[in-house]
Amino acid sequence: MTPDQLKLLLDSVKEGTVPVEQAVERLRQLPFQDVGCAQVDHHRELRQGMPEVIFGEGKKDEQIITIMGAMAENGSNVLVTRIDADKAQRIQRTFFGALYHANARCLTLEQRPAEAKGRGTILVVSAGTSDLPVAAEALVTARFLGNEAEHIYDVGVAGIHRLLARHEELAAASVLIVVAGMEGALPTVVGGLVDKPVIAVPTSIGYGAAFGGIAALLGMLNSCAAGVTVVNIDNGFGAACAASLINRA
Amino acid sequence: MTPDQLKLLLDSVKEGTVPVEQAVERLRQLPFQDVGCAQVDHHRELRQGMPEVIFGEGKKDEQIITIMGAMAENGSNVLVTRIDADKAQRIQRTFFGALYHANARCLTLEQRPAEAKGRGTILVVSAGTSDLPVAAEALVTARFLGNEAEHIYDVGVAGIHRLLARHEELAAASVLIVVAGMEGALPTVVGGLVDKPVIAVPTSIGYGAAFGGIAALLGMLNSCAAGVTVVNIDNGFGAACAASLINRA
Amino acid sequence: MTPDQLKLLLDSVKEGTVPVEQAVERLRQLPFQDVGCAQVDHHRELRQGMPEVIFGEGKKDEQIITIMGAMAENGSNVLVTRIDADKAQRIQRTFFGALYHANARCLTLEQRPAEAKGRGTILVVSAGTSDLPVAAEALVTARFLGNEAEHIYDVGVAGIHRLLARHEELAAASVLIVVAGMEGALPTVVGGLVDKPVIAVPTSIGYGAAFGGIAALLGMLNSCAAGVTVVNIDNGFGAACAASLINRA
Amino acid sequence: MTPDQLKLLLDSVKEGTVPVEQAVERLRQLPFQDVGCAQVDHHRELRQGMPEVIFGEGKKDEQIITIMGAMAENGSNVLVTRIDADKAQRIQRTFFGALYHANARCLTLEQRPAEAKGRGTILVVSAGTSDLPVAAEALVTARFLGNEAEHIYDVGVAGIHRLLARHEELAAASVLIVVAGMEGALPTVVGGLVDKPVIAVPTSIGYGAAFGGIAALLGMLNSCAAGVTVVNIDNGFGAACAASLINRA
Amino acid sequence: MTPDQLKLLLDSVKEGTVPVEQAVERLRQLPFQDVGCAQVDHHRELRQGMPEVIFGEGKKDEQIITIMGAMAENGSNVLVTRIDADKAQRIQRTFFGALYHANARCLTLEQRPAEAKGRGTILVVSAGTSDLPVAAEALVTARFLGNEAEHIYDVGVAGIHRLLARHEELAAASVLIVVAGMEGALPTVVGGLVDKPVIAVPTSIGYGAAFGGIAALLGMLNSCAAGVTVVNIDNGFGAACAASLINRA
Amino acid sequence: MTPDQLKLLLDSVKEGTVPVEQAVERLRQLPFQDVGCAQVDHHRELRQGMPEVIFGEGKKDEQIITIMGAMAENGSNVLVTRIDADKAQRIQRTFFGALYHANARCLTLEQRPAEAKGRGTILVVSAGTSDLPVAAEALVTARFLGNEAEHIYDVGVAGIHRLLARHEELAAASVLIVVAGMEGALPTVVGGLVDKPVIAVPTSIGYGAAFGGIAALLGMLNSCAAGVTVVNIDNGFGAACAASLINRA
Amino acid sequence: MTPDQLKLLLDSVKEGTVPVEQAVERLRQLPFQDVGCAQVDHHRELRQGMPEVIFGEGKKDEQIITIMGAMAENGSNVLVTRIDADKAQRIQRTFFGALYHANARCLTLEQRPAEAKGRGTILVVSAGTSDLPVAAEALVTARFLGNEAEHIYDVGVAGIHRLLARHEELAAASVLIVVAGMEGALPTVVGGLVDKPVIAVPTSIGYGAAFGGIAALLGMLNSCAAGVTVVNIDNGFGAACAASLINRA
Amino acid sequence: MTPDQLKLLLDSVKEGTVPVEQAVERLRQLPFQDVGCAQVDHHRELRQGMPEVIFGEGKKDEQIITIMGAMAENGSNVLVTRIDADKAQRIQRTFFGALYHANARCLTLEQRPAEAKGRGTILVVSAGTSDLPVAAEALVTARFLGNEAEHIYDVGVAGIHRLLARHEELAAASVLIVVAGMEGALPTVVGGLVDKPVIAVPTSIGYGAAFGGIAALLGMLNSCAAGVTVVNIDNGFGAACAASLINRA
């Protein structure tokens, strides 16, 4: 509810067209919907500029279907992240138009074309072959949110020439999402080469003292390239949300 | 060295106006300067859009003076962060025009007016009185880098009405830097209210299980508000660099 | 054994109706029962005001059945927590009247109606859909212990209006149990809105730097809302025990 | 602002006695006061039943004096925690009536007698001599908030008879705050003896693998006595706030 | 090889009954045996007073059979720890006389009666039903090493009377092994009641902030009962070895 | 109070020589003494076979003097650990006979000769020069408790021959306390050479990844020499208490 | 591309035999190959002296086959690490000549004999039976890279004589790789016996406070034997790479 | 004592020129010297190829002087590390020829010229100005041990061109020591550029999530450049020892 809407409501109260009791009620009823297991936030798109997204991990089929249904009826496009192939297939039986992105472990239901909002290209850069799923989640999300998005892969810092060879593509992006596991040094090197915002995504790739992504996370938080910001381990989705907010005119 | 410059050099080699040996030399000589304790990177402003900044902590007076001198001679504006009042005062004896920002523990030397580059306002939001120094570092840095910057303070989530009362200011910013210690929940609440990029800065404020900022850092990395990105504990400087890159046209 | 009972025993010794040897024996025999794998504490209900509860995780069918049997024979109501559907079903073959609460992963055997002891309502507030099982464990336990208990769900702080809309229900409770994973900020916001005791329950929901609930736990321990207390990760049962002790007249 | 106040405001708007613009303004102006370094929350006492308290650590003299002044002018009693003797002495020069509690490291300014609110006694139980300051902070806070409060000290679990000898005092309390460092086992033993809410406070006492209170904190979170809740390390203040909320009729 | 044996060897060299080359060889050949995957240490029983024991976890059937065979041929009794029922059953096909202890997950092969060496009774005390397997490993090991050993179970500190009722048995032991998970407070309470060595064994029982036994381990290391020593999490075997060394005349 | 004393008391009650009220009182009055800041446990020597010891760290002069006074009046020998030279000197002004052990940072007051209780020698073995203070604390404590005690120092495992050369002394001890920082490997090597109980004491010596003794602590807990038990970091006192209990006939 | 090659290229440009555009292109085209999921780095052998190696864990069959194919076509020998028997068998259907090393979990395809490069023998020393797979990975890798390599196993420090008996073999090696889990003390003891480089490999063997290899890792980083260096937990491959670089003339 | 010496001794015993008792004695007397607080290991130079080095931190003046004296009398060169300027100055009063290296915090006493043993140059590469002291310790140590050693500084990965410009120097070294704090990415990039052994030294430089060098340490352990090995945080000395062992012919 915007300030204008608030003023309109109060004018109506003053004019007597809206009774006091009803105004009290409306002031506390914001547009979300109780679907039994969740409060679907139809208002988020207005408030935050992107629709609510369903985090699939740990949710049961019925829960996802219920929430998707409420959103679909409301006319929204829907994105489900962290959903495996089996669960996705079962849900596609209810939502025929839903599309499963295997690499990214995402399910999308696009009822209307994503309206292009970005002013430039979001470039996803990833370090090793094993980082591909997280990079894919970022790519799918960025495009779902109405952005141009591209991908450079397997350009780890132990063979720095592979990265330097892509310098022009790096320079052409408006925002960069850099995905890396193990020691997580790639965002620092990229951050030192470009003059654009860099969002670093640590991945849980590695073993031993990688500690499920802690090594990469700490590396990125301590980046000596000023201006690099970081999201949670394996959080390709969150990186794409941030990149999308940045990429808007 | 840009691709154009590279082509020009190779043309010169072809035409014989530049001997091969000299070209080999130039291809490996990039514009940084060895000042004895550091390699001053005069090139960074071109490459990354912001001048090199001196991290003052742990550096001796002479080291700071040497590096500042090399930068000042080159005509750059200079920012020194994490510098206490005593050290700053001693350095001001060499650089008369340098200005000390006590709250932010920063020293600036502005030889030419910072050229305004941002397209909007960077808003720094901080949680408690003890978070003020980190917020101040972000403010000073953001302005040094040519941005409009404002500050809302003491709006912690335990008295949520203080924050909600500032909703319009929040909505008017182009980028937000949200600074909080203890449980670090403020960026999530702010991120849920606006549709702009939010950069979260955990501070080392707190005691016991705050673990010097770890609690706040983890809280911010796990923010349920999609699109919040995070920098290192107490890193107001880094947050402002990121915000500045985002704020440019 | 209460002080009165002790005095009575000593009087009997003095009067010679209880021989010294027998008194020595009784002074060391407190009313618990060895059932082979456990010492069932029939005395707890008198001493602590709530019956012993069986923690089902890691216990074998036979162990649970033996302990339940000893308690049932003694006339107690029985609560088994952390028990999966399969194990519960096998145990229900022995105890026909036992009821399985699937969401809460609890089994209850109520031989007499739970006597209503609370002076108000215990309100369970949970953040995300994935936090529901922990909230359900708290609800089942609170009711088992003789309290009125209600539930508000999916009111995470990234959409703060969903929570504010329930302000009256929050204010009406006598104790609040607030369940949240990820950054665990919900108890702080709730604690800032009400003047009643708030018990925070971190959940293991999240990934990456959530570290199985550590992020939420630390967030809650560092809550800037004074008066919030915390229990172990996923410990809905313990929160309900504490709430029940608080809720008594 | 209560629901009744909201209704009154809207009635006034309807009747025309309050112009719409003014109502909009009041709806966003809640009663806090900007004192330059903080937003003093005069509203907290109404909202949460206890006045705002000043956390002294890391605040400068001027900041404390400014905030105390705003609160004192408003007629509030004032409590400053974590304040050392030197700083307290300097502040007492401005506020003559302020009283310093050396053991507890607290400063209180009581302008009107604390109105007795509790329905019973809050009992603080502490384990070792070194835990006394944290226990004292809890005692001072509990009394400041209008409660009867008593103290049992040096009753660590390695000499369990010292604790058992105080059984009647334990049983007579309405809420217990149990303070312990090292292995932090005392709250579990106390929790097993009484049928009242127990709030556990880990202290940073110990060395080596005590890790500044982590051992005690973990011990308390894993208490096998159901119903024990925990606050942050050394947080005697927070424990007393929780106990005070519980102790009210 | 004992000092006496060394002297004997050197005497033999002097007398010429042992050639120098052979003495050199013997001085470097100590009595262990290469069985392909391991160096079986037949010498350990002489050197350390207990035979080598096979840690079964992670070893393949063939590896265990090979090592057991080499030990059995040498006339030793054999103990295999951390071995599940299936693997044990397969190995019993080769060693008919081997006995599987299901609770303790141990396999023993006793070729000659364990010679009784202890001067008193080793008492194993355990806290909860879930700690039984670790306690059982300690019991089986203690008896295998020639000690009298008894067991008191389910005497957790939240119902302290269950423990106090067994005071005489506690006092009668010559060494105590105290096994507990969760907050691990039992060894401290026991250590405060007896004047005998107490060995504490943390178990991995618990959830959330139990962190797989870390809470119990830290609690025990910080025990305020002087004289408690600690072994690794779940290491019932190691505790029994230490107790056995202590129990010898 | 022993079982015999209990029987005597009950006999007196039966015979009427002790009134019931007095018996009730005595059953709850165990022999400890409230000295204002502590409950001095005069009973410990009977119960645990060693007198209460004062942990000096963090205690004020007055507190130590008060507790020492109560113990001295009772005729006990007194040991204060973790006390620096200045504080000790101030306390010696009150207790002239007290002796300060500078290396061990201990103060002892022996009013009667320590009665020799041990059946053999406690041998303290330490790794590096920096581990000497912890070893000294163990030595002073062991002797204070009535044991013969010796010391072998600077025999770290990186020069294994230094240790092997002392083999006979190792073999002659009845209990060994092995003190080491850094990687903490010494107890394992010693444990593999002897057939006596080995108590490992990690020290906080080291830097970087030594983490204040964590590396040594973990090394010792994971010792592959069965029968090694461990105490807290730098806890020479606790190791000597355990060794003393073991060393008694 | 070597400096010589660069000079040659520039000479060609000068002479006009290579057009400027083509030179620009070549300067940015280094010899790696995009195979769809990876950038195969054919250049590494020249640059680093060893071929690129495929880390098998988490890679799908198709990805491994694609990368192996690109390398095989280029004439390289191929090593795949961390690959289980099933996956290896499926891949052998495509590459008939590939050899699976079960203990080491490695697959090798040798198209030309590994050219012997080392100047001495790499000796792998391992502590327990469970450390064998990591040791085997080191052995296979060392030989694949053209080195002589030998293995001493089951020489843990708890039976130090087993190690001392192999002193000559230790002394004869040119580089030593020492593999150990649990407390990880073996590299320190070995490092104290030889005058050659020692590379320590912690393994994830152990339980409880071994924390998946952290105890061993910390032990090795804190080794008191100067000159020991460390690689990641279970990283036999990396240790062999380092040893191979050291072993070259 | 070498095998040859052992044979000689045994021959002497056989011939009767050495009595058995004396041989027993010599077999246990290895050439180290008890100086009261330490066992000086004169044998180390023979055994390990480098003299014992004194770790100065935490040692008192007298201890250092005693140990230096014993070594100096034996004709050894002496290196003391981690010694501050004041302590060094006091020690120089006893050892006039000793030289203090302020940057490296080392004291050296060279009684005879260090004999040149290395076959190439050890190159120390450091990332930031603050890493200089650790790099200096490595340089001083490497030269003390008889190696050529050079230094490249301030070549952090955020300005990768500074490093690439030094490619020839990197390629010319025989061993590289790479020193970096913060995210510790430099060794990976260097390791990807050269075909020589790289030893990584994490430093404690940084703040917040740098955790005193843990971030850099983890980054280096997880380096994706195969063949990088790691030493403890700030351990420039250890890195130089390892490099020296590698650099020998």
Automatic annotation (TrEMBL), chains A, B, C, D, E, F, G, H:
Which residue intervals define the domain PurE in the entry? 120-249
* Record SUPFAM superfamilies: N5-CAIR mutase (phosphoribosylaminoimidazole carboxylase, PurE)
Q: From the record, give the transmembrane residue ranges.
A: none
Q: What is this protein called?
A: Nickel pincer cofactor biosynthesis protein LarB
Origin organism lineage = Bacteria, Pseudomonadati, Thermodesulfobacteriota, Desulfuromonadia, Geobacterales
Q: Which gene encodes it?
A: larB
